[in-house]
């Protein structure tokens, strides 16, 4: 282990002691070395909190820095793994990180673009960052586009953050292995899988060239929409550690007072948020999976028909056609309170094993969801119902579906945002017509005709080879009786050979036994039995030899 890794490990150990994290492990689950640590370091300075809890864990993660903060933020969405207390506390984690030097950012940009002076590519560059986060920071600049200066922002990955992330993730995996091995719920919590999922997520955020491609795809999907605007991305200037994008001027979606002051139609804005989310998921199968308020703005123009502006495309979710269809049908079945259909869909999709009793699963879903539906619709949390469903399904051996976890996280953001803008938002009634229409399009005549049109070029391309394929198939069918007879003959030969082998083996065993008995009787000077066993042994050997010669 490198010296820097040892130093980092020592700091993590100090943090665990100071925030009493070891004490949070129940006494009966503590391995001997944890007990030894608590005994030897009883004198170590500790926080004033009387016991280790979710609050202490949040403070510890903040103390450990950006990599651990990001992990806590991700875990806060995993309500299938954590209690409500931990989920609520970890959701308070903030990315309030000190900026790094602007001159250093200029050097990184020049190095990435292979230039000596930043003004060779950009007209202006502000060394004071516009915004900072745990992974990167953003600087304002201007770029000549068609000989006209264009306001842009340049996002730059923090120097040295990749090495720190790799070191911390290796330590996280070590800790996850210990949790899996020694904690009572270690296997169920799947700590190694959680860390691996986090590793993929944070590596995606580190690759700004991938983020640029994600943003361009999302922009194409909403090119003609007045619901969502995606800034222009200048991919020719983007690299793995820097992204160049049009600078947007909008109102943070969390600044409700400012939105009200310009008479923004908040009801319409909230409903548009729901529409944008379901359009991304069910029309495009490509959705922004990091839609927290810091990444969403509202255009200052046309407040009567407000438009969202989205940024930060590092984390994107996808659904395959099967997951998408089953999810939509699940939602519609929920709207109609058809719990048997929900249970059947979970089994059909493979999310729940086929051996699960569907009727019992239906009863479990009904028990969880029926009390919720007794409330007014505008008081029902769509996302919480989804979480309740996943929790119930987990009791029936449903494994965690990573694509559904991202969807659940995004839905929590969308619903929270919508209710913040317009508390009376009835998300169920807003989403139901969209989903029903989508399901009908997938199942009805329109869907069949769409599939035919989509596959027609492929069928036309393969059509000339169809007669040869038909001829080959018919020839194969004609030869089936002959092939079948050959297989039967080969099987009979093999079976006869097996029977003969058994006979030969039996004769060999008998002759060997007779010779063994002959040797034993000779040792004990029993001439009668010696003679009989010897004669029997020779007779068996002779008989076996005759059979062998005959079969040859």
TrEMBL record:
Pathway: Cofactor biosynthesis; ubiquinone biosynthesis [regulation]. Residues 92-345 form the ABC1 atypical kinase-like domain. Keywords: ATP-binding, Cell inner membrane, Cell membrane, Kinase, Membrane, Nucleotide-binding, Transferase, Transmembrane, Transmembrane helix, Ubiquinone, Ubiquinone biosynthesis. The chain crosses the membrane at residues 528-548. InterPro entries: ABC1_dom, Kinase-like_dom_sf, UbiB, UbiB_bact, UbiB_kinase. CDD domains: UbiB. Belongs to the protein kinase superfamily. ADCK protein kinase family. This is Ubiquinone biosynthesis regulatory protein kinase UbiB. The lineage of its organism: Bacteria, Pseudomonadati, Pseudomonadota, Gammaproteobacteria, Alteromonadales.
């Amino acid at each position: 282990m490198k010296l820097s890794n040892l130093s980092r490990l020592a700091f993590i150990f100090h943090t665990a002691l100071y925030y009493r994290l070891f004490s949070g492990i129940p006494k009966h689950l503590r391995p001997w070395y944890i007990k030894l640590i608590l005994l030897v370091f009883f004198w170590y300075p500790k926080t004033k909190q009387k016991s280790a809890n979710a609050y202490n864990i949040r403070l510890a993660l903040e103390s450990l820095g950006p990599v651990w903060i990001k992990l806590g933020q991700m875990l806060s969405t995993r309500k299938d793994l954590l209690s409500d207390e931990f989920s609520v506390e970890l959701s308070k984690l903030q990315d309030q990180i000190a900026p790094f030097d602007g001159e250093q950012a200029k050097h990184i940009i020049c190095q990435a673009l292979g230039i000596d002076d930043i003004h060779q590519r950009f007209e202006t560059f502000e060394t004071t960052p516009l915004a900072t986060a745990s992974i990167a920071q953003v600087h304002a600049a201007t770029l000549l586009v068609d000989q006209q200066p264009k306001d842009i922002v340049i996002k730059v990955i923090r120097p040295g953050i990749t090495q720190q992330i790799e070191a911390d993730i290796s330590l996280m995996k070590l800790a996850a292995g210990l949790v899996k091995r020694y904690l009572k719920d270690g296997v169920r919590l799947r700590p190694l899988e959680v860390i691996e999922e986090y590793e993929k997520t944070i590596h995606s955020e580190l690759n700004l060239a991938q983020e640029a491609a994600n943003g361009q795809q999302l922009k194409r999907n909403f090119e003609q929409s007045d619901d969502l605007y995606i800034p222009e991305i200048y991919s020719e200037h983007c690299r793995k550690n820097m992204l160049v994008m049009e600078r947007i001027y909008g109102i943070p979606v969390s600044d409700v007072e400012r939105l009200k002051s310009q008479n923004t139609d908040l009801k319409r804005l909230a409903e548009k948020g729901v529409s944008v989310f379901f359009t991304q998921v069910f029309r495009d199968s490509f959705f922004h999976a990091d839609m927290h308020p810091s990444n969403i703005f509202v255009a200052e123009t046309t407040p009567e028909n407000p438009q969202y502006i989205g940024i930060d495309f590092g984390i994107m979710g996808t659904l395959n056609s099967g997951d998408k269809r089953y999810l939509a049908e699940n939602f519609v079945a929920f709207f109609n309170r058809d719990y048997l259909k929900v249970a059947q869909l979970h089994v059909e999709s493979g999310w729940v094993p086929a051996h699960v009793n569907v009727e019992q699963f239906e009863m479990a879903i009904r028990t969880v969801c029926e009390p919720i539906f007794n409330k007014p619709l505008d008081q029902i949390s769509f996302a919480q119902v989804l979480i309740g469903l996943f929790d119930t399904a987990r009791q029936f051996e449903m494994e965690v579906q990573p694509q559904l976890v991202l969807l659940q996280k995004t839905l929590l953001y969308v619903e929270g945002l919508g209710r913040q803008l317009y508390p009376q938002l009835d998300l169920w009634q807003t989403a139901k017509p969209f989903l029903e229409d989508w399901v009908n399009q997938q199942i009805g005549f329109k869907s069949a005709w769409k599939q035919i049109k989509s596959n027609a070029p492929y069928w036309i391309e393969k059509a000339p080879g169809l007669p040869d394929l038909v001829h080959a198939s018919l020839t194969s069918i004609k030869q089936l009786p002959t092939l079948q007879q050959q297989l039967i003959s080969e099987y009979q030969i093999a079976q006869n050979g097996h029977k003969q082998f058994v006979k030969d083996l039996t004769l060999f065993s008998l002759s060997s036994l007779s010779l063994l008995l002959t040797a034993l009787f000779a040792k004990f000077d029993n001439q009668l039995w010696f003679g009989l066993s010897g004669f029997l042994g020779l007779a068996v050997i002779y008989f076996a030899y005759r059979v062998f010669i005959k079969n040859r």
